[in-house]
Amino acid sequence: MNGRTFGWFVAPSVVMMLVFIAFPLVFVFVQSFHATQSVFETVKVESCTPGFLGQVCKTEERSRPKLDAAGQPVRETSFIGLAAYRTVLQPDAVWAALAPGGGGWDAVMAVDFYRALRFTLTFTLVTLPAVIGLGLLIALAVNTMARSLRGPLIFVSLMPFIVTPVIGALSIRWLFMGDGILTAALRWMTGSHISMFAQGWTIEVLMLVYRVWHVAPFAFVVFYAALQTVSQDALEAALIDGASRFERLRYVVIPHLKPLIVFVALIHLMDAYRVFDEVVGFSSEAHRISLQFLTFNLLTPDQAGNRAVTRASASAMLTMVGVIVLLVPILARAWREQRGRA
Amino acid sequence: MKRLIVAATLAMGLAGPASAACSYHNTVPLKTLSAAFEAWKAVTSAMAECGNVQSELDQEFRRKQPAAFAANPSLYQLGGVSNGTIVPLLSAGTIRPLDDLVAKFGQSLSPNQLIRVDGKIMAIAMSVNSQHLMYRQDIFAELGLPQPKTYDDVLAAAAKIKASGKVAYAMGATFKPGFDIGLDFVNLFLGFGGTLTKPDNTPSFNGEAGVKTLNAMKAISGYLDPEYLVSESTFVQKQFQQGKIAIAHLWATRAAAMDDAKESQVVGKIAMVASPAAVAGGKPASTLWWDGFAIAKNIPDSEAEAAFRVGVAALNEDMVKANNGAAVWLIKGFTPARAAEGAIATAMAGAPPYPSTITMGIAMTAIGDNAADFLTGKKTAEQTLAAMEAAYLVKAREQGLVK
Amino acid sequence: MNAALRLPAGLRLVIGVFVIGWVVVAAFPLLWTAVMSFRVPADALSGNPLDVLLGPRTLETVGGGLGIGVTFEHYWAVWVTQHFYRNLLNSAVVTFGVVTISLSVGTLAGYGLARTRSVLAFWLLVAALVFRALPHSVLVTGYVPAFLNSAHWLQPLWDWGATGWLFHPFAARAPTLYGQPLAVIVVLVAINQPFTIWMLRSFFENIPAELDEAAQVDGCTAFGAFWRVIMPVMWPGVITAGLFSFLLAYNDYLVTALLLDSQSMTMVPAITQFLNRDSRASEQIEAIAAAVSITAPLFVLVMAFQKQIVAGLTQGAVKG
């Protein structure tokens, strides 16, 4: 296929990605170095609010945004360099904390960004082996079942994966929140009342468990499909060599699955790194926040109706850096292959 | 265009036959966005009776409203606002002064309902609201406890109730991070005589009043369901209804639900009284709020007129009589019932109005995002207050309020 | 199977117990939620599991059979009183739009990418992979102000003669994109393109290139070869990619919640509106009933297309 025909085939897709993904990204990048401020003026104003019977009127000095002739607030945009990044990363606070006599780890964790980073990394790195391990176990187990059972088993296993994520999180939450059925069950088993939403670590455990529940079926299906193509000859050869069941698994089956394990790990890394639904679904923001939630939260208008757009852009860019670090090894490998092909 | 027609026919089909109950027959398609509590359910269904009105009731309206009203043309003609949520609209200049409309069509409104900012009428109030004390009078009577007048009384009563084991948790509180816990802090902070900001717009949370406030909240948290950090008004309301708690400082708009036999197991057992004071002899540690509506600026005058007339027509005597318990209405026909007693007592005892200022909005955000760190023990009181001030200053500088 | 490969009884037992355990864990939360939706609040929110399972108070107040209380009042409230069918219609429009556009644009690009060796294609795929990993909230919150004010900044396209003739037949003025299902469809298609083109590319790579080369020798254009020769053997791949587009559009929360208003709201964000409104216990069960209503079509979908879903999940993997 020549370059021109190729261009026509991919054009619609590329245009859409440029307009809705690449362009906003560039915009966010530029925005992270600029601040937009309202111009305020101090005025004496009378304001009245109702009491139950009468009205309370007060005249006082207040700051209010200056409006132009058309009634729009006057705004000024200026270049601020890395100031927004400094506000997000707070290098001074980190130095102070790490200096002798500083607050150490706890003081670093008091900065939202590091708190979010800590949780996001823990979330990603703990769920990764759990998803792969559980997925593999289910795949191996289902593979030993009678053929007639496998269809229904796959069907049931797919449900946690296919169900709307928000609803999945809600249904788990309904089971645990307050006097939910599983909280009651835990109390019955342990004899003491454990409130799952009362402290950070239980919420964190719940979030991890939910994600593993949600994604393990994906790993299972991929591994199960690959198990169907394991070479029977290799297995029998190993058997003749006197390999035990475990050795056959270790030296024949796992190497066969290896590219797929890498694939599942890659997809899971990307998805877990942008964890967001769990924070919303489990209302964990008092205890645990993720990087994507941090950005989202900065973009949500506060009680005065303002979005911290610049800081959000900076935090989004820092999140991006993390994505790229995560992808570098995979991209490097793909690049080597491409060079080999060309 | 096609979508407009579909929406219009849907709206007419729904609202057409019922328009007899509304004094104004509306022909302009209108959309409203407001909070979702009982009073708004009543008012928006009264608006629907005027014809061609589509209402969106959403507790997330706080987040949606500023952007939706800033659009040109505005996505909604009429917005439900309160003294907290009107601030973003005022500072963005997206709602219009109503003086001329009030002069033309507002004869039925009482002067008390006109919200004036900067000398101009910017909103029409329909009800007042405040948080006030609710407690289980049956339990208090059994244990021989008097009505609490101060927070010390409340904590003393809570200790006895906890010891008696009559309820699962002695108290309930709206300690969910964000707006809920922020307002609890502000109520107590003002009660302890604190002022949130200095005249130059810099913060002054970090002082004696702040430490006292946090300690009082910590003391309260000892009597709560340990999951108190996910607890907002609905959560506390349910705890009361299911008989799990005995004392809470809760919104007046939730009072009627306590006596709803379909939902509540404690009908008639909850006393509604004024908020306790933070210090003995002080004013109630609560703030007065109003709810009402404002009209968007970025719409044609004909739509604004229709929206205003629909709004005024909906605030009528029949609506109030049918929903007497849903709010402390400022409208003719309201007879203060049991559910309104607490809010009225709080107002009469001189609780201050919640200030509709930008600095207040920023302060609330900074406080609401950080207060929980003290309760969970992550930070000391001083560290928490310093973090609040730092968060406030970052925002205020970003907006240009503080140089 | 070889006798030596057969499992000993002890291991079989362990595996059996494990599989049963997994089935319970996988199905329980969803089934339990479904059961709750058929009970009155007093039963559904009870701490005693037997109350939820048997619904004694539901039996007393509403009715049921075989000693088990069942009520459909929450479904009635959701579908009839609250007009949830409107959200269903909106979901249908958005999902249908996303699936058709996503497949048309995606198959073209996937085929192009599978049949070229240019470095450009490599970088395109890498870019798509990075886009696939992007946190969506970053992009989507950026759209909100642009969509709200689109009537303002799109107007020049309508006023300018060179483009005006093209747009005028659709609308007299530039539209506000916020709340328009079409705008949301385009955004969802764009956000899901990276995944779609990766998956379709690997399907196309499995089709021997000799097939379309032969067609081109016979005088077909590149597009002709693609359409007449390749597409007919590509249907399994297209159906699979379509299923995934369907799931992504149907399940989306972030985009639809931020960019649609109440009239055009799809089902998933509408649920959170139910939840936000819950000042009554019965409204919470209504939210649960709505959640079950949303999940039911997914059940049917998995039953009908299980093979394709499994194929799709593995297909992306083969070349990974």
Describe the protein's architecture and organization.
The complex is a heterotrimer of chains A (342), B (403) and C (320). Chain A is mainly alpha-helical and 342 residues long. Helix content of chain A is 68%, strand content 9%. Chain A is built from 14 helices and 4 strands. In chain A, the strands form 2 sheets. Chain A has a two-stranded antiparallel sheet with strand order 1-4. In chain A, strands 2-3 form a two-stranded antiparallel sheet. In chain A, β2 (40-50) and β3 form a beta hairpin. In chain A, α5 packs parallel to α9, α9 crosses α11 and α13 crosses α14. Chain B is α/β, with parallel strands linked by helices. In chain B, strands 1, 2, 3, 4, 5, 6, 7, 8, 9 and 10 form a 10-stranded mixed beta sheet that branches. The N and C termini of chain B lie far apart (48 Å). Chain C has 320 residues and is an all-alpha fold. In chain C, α7 (119-133) crosses α12 and α14 runs antiparallel to α17 (281-318). Chain C is flat and about 75 Å long. The mean pLDDT of chain C is 78. Chains in contact: A-B, A-C, B-C. At the A-C interface, α1, α5, α6, α7 and α8 of A face α1, α6, α7, α8 and α12 of C.
What is the strand and helix layout of this fold?
The complex is a heterotrimer of chains A (342), B (403) and C (320).
Chain A: H1 3-31, E1 34-38, E2 40-50, E3 55-65, E4 75-79, H2 83-89, H3 91-98, H4 104-109, H5 112-143, H6 147-162, H7 165-176, H8 181-190, H9 200-227, H10 232-240, H11 245-273, H12 277-281, H13 291-299, H14 309-341
Antiparallel strand pairs in A: 1-4, 2-3
Helix pairs in contact in A: 2-14, 5-9, 5-11, 6-9, 9-11, 11-14, 13-14
Chain B: H1 2-15, E1 30-34, H2 38-48, E2 53-57, H3 61-70, E3 78-82, H4 86-92, H5 99-105, E4 114-117, E5 120-136, H6 137-142, H7 151-164, E6 171-172, H8 179-191, H9 208-221, H10 233-241, E7 247-251, H11 255-258, E8 270-273, E9 288-295, H12 301-314, H13 317-322, E10 328-329, H14 341-348, H15 358-370, H16 372-375, H17 381-399
Parallel strand pairs in B: 1-2, 1-3, 6-7
Antiparallel strand pairs in B: 3-9, 4-5, 5-7, 5-8, 5-9, 5-10
Chain C: H1 9-36, H2 41-44, H3 49-54, H4 56-61, E1 64-65, E2 68-69, H5 73-81, H6 84-114, H7 119-133, H8 136-148, H9 150-153, H10 155-159, H11 161-167, H12 181-205, H13 209-217, H14 222-251, H15 254-259, H16 267-276, H17 281-318
Antiparallel strand pairs in C: 1-2
Helix pairs in contact in C: 1-17, 5-17, 6-12, 6-14, 7-12, 12-14, 12-17, 13-14, 14-17, 16-17
